[in-house]
Specification:
By secondary structure, the chain is mainly alpha-helical. It is about 60% helix and about 10% strand. The chain has a two-stranded antiparallel ribbon. Helix 1 packs antiparallel against helix 2, helix 2 packs antiparallel against helix 3 and helix 2 crosses helix 4. The protein is globular, with a radius of gyration of 15 Å.
């Protein structure tokens, strides 16, 4: 399977569409591999796409940096999570923090 091609398609699709409202900013070339915080190296992905992007980066590079990043996304107190579960958890977190912030700022 050509993981590089799949990763490139994922990134290019995200760059060419209207930015998603709910999601996470992703470093196209990860910082741990020399990527910068400049706009050309950043893309907003849905939570699920972000998870998948990190899985693909691990399959492409198979280095400790990508294993660590993927591990941080996959592991939770309840065990290993799927991309769909990760997306749901991130949305719950975002909503909860938003509601808490509104209440706190009153």
């Amino acid at each position: 399977m050509n993981y590089s091609r799949i990763y490139d398609e994922l990134i290019n699709n995200a760059k060419s569409r209207k930015p998603v409202d709910k999601g996470e900013v992703h470093h196209i070339l990860p910082g741990s591999m020399g990527g910068s915080n400049f706009k050309y190296n950043l893309v907003k992905l849905t939570h699920r796409e972000h998870f998948i992007a990190h899985m693909l980066l691990f399959y492409i590079h198979r280095n400790s940096q990508m294993a660590f990043a993927l591990g941080r996304m996959r592991n939770s107190r309840s065990g290993v999570v799927s991309s769909r579960t990760y997306a749901i958890a991130r949305e719950i977190h975002r909503t909860t923090v938003s509601e808490w912030s509104k209440e706190y700022m009153k």
